[in-house]
Amino acid sequence: MIQITPHMQILVACLPIDFRKGIDGLAAVARNHLDEDPFSGTIFVFFNKRRSSMKILVYDGQGFWLCQKRLSKGKFFYQPDPGSLKSIELTAHQMHLLLYNGDPHAKASPLWKKI
Predict the structure, then answer these.
(1) Where do runs of H (alpha helix) occur along 21-88?
(2) Which of 10, 19, 60, 114 could potentially form a cystine with 90 if both were Cys, beta carbons 3.0 to 4.6 Å apart?
């Protein structure tokens, strides 16, 4: 099981990738195209061209986890605007929103409130 915590770095690749790639192929994308170390513990999020699936790659210190979520209907609403960026960084809270097909950059209530 992978726990997404606030201290983790989460990067979403801006360009779609070929989903025939496995762990080694995605680690190569992280290293060569995103200029990041796949062994750093960073969570890497990739989308396919149709945006109907997402793959998550993370190294936990012993080995890689590769998770995939494929929507049964429709596509993921979130589309990162790359501009000149190769990836976009998210917080743990934003990643949880993304996993449930929400918009991580939508204006929402604060994460905490004083009572």
Answers:
(1) 23-32
(2) 10
